[in-house]
Amino acid sequence: MNTATHTLDHHDGHGQHPTGLLRWLTTTNHKDIGTMYLTFSLLMFFVGGAMILAVRAELFQPGLQLMKPEFFNQLIGVHALVMIFAALMPAATGFANWMIPLMIGAPDMALPRLNNWGFWLLPPAAMLLTMPFVLALFGIGDGAVATGWTLYAPLSVQGGIGVDFAIFSIHILGISSIMGSINIIATILNMRAPGMTLMKMPLFCWGWLVTAVLLIITLPVLAGGVTMLLTDRHFDTHFFNAAGGGDPILFQHLFWFFGHPEVYILLLPVWGLMPHVLSTFTRKPIYGHTAQVWSFIAIGVLGLIVWAHHFLTAGLPVPALLYFMYSTMSISLPLAVLFFCWIATMWRGAMSFETPMLFAVGFIVLFGIAGLTGLVLADVAADAQYHHSYFVVAHFHYALFAGGIMGVMTGVYYWLPKWTGHMYSEKLGKLHFWLTVISFNLTFMPQFFLGLAGMPRRIPDYALQFAEFNAISTVGAFVLGLSQLIFAYNVWRCVKGGEKASDKVWEGTSGLEWELSSPPPHHSWDIQPVIKSH
Amino acid sequence: MTTLNPRIPAKLFAGTGLMLAAGSALADYTWNFPKPVTPIARDTLNIHNEFMVIITALFVVVFAIMLYSMAKHRKSTGAEPARFSGPAGALQWFWVLVPFGILLFIDFVLMGIPAFHAVIEMEDTRTKADMVLKVTGLQWKWKYEYPDSGIQFISTLSTPREQIEGKEAKGEHYLLEVDNEVVLPVGKKVRILLTSTDVIHTWWVPQFGVKRDAIPGFLRETWVRIEEPGVYRGQCAELCGKDHGFMPVVVRAVPEAEYAEWVDKKKAEMATAAAGSDKTWTKDELMAAGKAAYEKNCAACHQPEGQGLPPAFPALAGSKIVNGPLLSPEGKLIPDSHVDRVLNGKTGTAMQAFKATLSDADLAAIITYERNAFGNTRGDMIQPAQIKALR
User: Fold this and answer.
1) Where do the TM regions start and end (chain A) (predicted)?
2) What is the ipTM for the molecules in this complex?
């Protein structure tokens, strides 16, 4: 506490911070930038959500009611790109910006100006992605990218200007993510408090370290792939055109070499956060800290070498099929270590179930369904039935909504009092949790059965035997979407005011970040704390 | 999260039972894969069922432990938190390692071994294959070829537009019905070769347990041996553009004798069509045949009234290309002319080279129709024989 007060005095001496809009445009403060990332993420979460509600409304009944198939195809692809690149990834980066310096006892991120740039690349990228929708209204082009987020060639070679906009948007988002990753790696490796060895570093930072390394390894491959797509479209190269000696499947290899690690890029920060939340609300130390660190690393490494399980029906040779099947199955082992550690952390604790804990438990159970269905999806023979079907759609929403988004919500409820200095409404938080969990399952559980019954994904209209499950799923989706307004309101309310939060916020917390005031001073850890070895 | 109401599990079971009962009341309502009719589909279903039992058991066991802990180790019941943060002592290490031993066994023995055999069987397309069926994906229809008998035809969705737009009641096989069904003999091993002329499509019939991508410029293969006569329906499974949701696969499996009859009938039809390209057609005949062929092959993009869906799908009504000259004075193809576009397509767009899929008569009829419909008044016509010469 003394350190913090000292910091504040020290910088007030300089006293010249811009205010208003200029503050946010020019800020190099990790907390301001973290706040901007999180705000942007929340906004885009609703944009992506609105798109998919339109899709679900169309799918409420068989027949084409609301939109043309071309527009439907635009909505599903842009929904995915927005949710992945503009909602989930910025949310995780926002967490990193806010929490990593606080957790490791650093005064700020290592590269604050780069940090500012990294954020301000996001709004133009999001505008590029969605602008073709607007341009189409004025008769320019035929709308946004309509190839699904996977941009498979040659469909994407054939597509309209939406594809070019998406390619440039991905370039910019990629640059932003790589800058963020460099910053996080530099901060973690150089700015930890004396005495905090890597193995003592909080797991959230470890999750992010592995994510950052994965991003730096895989994003250039995606950038290269979409650039080749761009030259195929406009400069007559034939990377993905068999007539010119190319191969459409090459694009799938390039895309999924990024795309599979991307799943872990989205989830590792959440896996890093879970043990902190569980330990806090069980009032018990994290179980298996070292084991979890090695599991993160193992998942990162395995994640880089299993990509082709995303196109097992493309006609790979038998040895490749077997390799990708068994390597994918082996991911279940480090993942099981994480589940084991989470449950062992809870075991014989003294649990209480505030909103973050509810979300954490919801996350574990529902993400468990994602993991188990992922294990069966790895099987090449059964995958022939699951692949390209609603079974896959359900599976990855259990991974990325229940795993990703609910993980992010766990973090928001957990850290919001620290960030704002106010407690959120526990009553609204619990309401939000229960509505989310129930409507989430109502939306996605029927999709498993739709997939088994043979409904392909990405179709705007369907045969009559799929009608009942689709209707249920649409009702669930609307409840799920509307429930998130409670979340937005709760956050807004908490930012504005409310019951004062203590420095420790929760009874069971431990770690440097809880030693600072709530909210922490504008500049924290000006004098580095020292971690005593024990 | 108070203590569990003891009546909840009972209610849950009753609820599930009700749902299952409701399910059996609706004939097409399924909770699992549809009934398998090939050895691969049966294998796949068995594997799937086994896997579902395994993962359900894992789920129940793991979360039962968690729920027990959540009920028992609560602050409100006065639980004192333990301080352990890892396994201590040989016994605890043993209990930590047991679940991983079990998981290794499940992954690579319980699941891994049947999966291995299924993959080998699934990919064995050549051993003792009785016949070959070549499947070509096109935006948005399927072309089927039987190399043994020379039969080939295009199969497109036959559900009327009115049903899709909700102006008519939807039929029983809404979106899963086609004009030309693929006919295959029961009990024969059919090696299926797949390719595409434009983008990637995926040929999928759930009851066959077979799903394989059709990739432009490459051949892929799979196989089926259908064990029961019947009509089996599936769909394209890879997003392939605008009408991805409207290119079904319908296979009719028939006994061998019936199959032979069908082959003879198809061959006769093909001979009649071939004769059509040698005779001279009147303009009225071309216009009538052209309208029908246009509506089947062109109207999805260029629209029934030729207004198109610009900018992706240009209008034909008043189009410069359609209203341009037909052929050069020497009767040769003019580059980028109307005939060139229809025959050879336009690279980089959804406009395909229709000479690969349509007969001389259909091509001549469509070109003639387009030049004299939608307010276009070129007045000229082209004969199937001329198309034949241009190929």
Assistant:
1) 33-55, 75-98, 119-141, 161-191, 203-230, 293-312, 324-345, 357-378, 398-416, 428-449, 469-492
2) 0.91
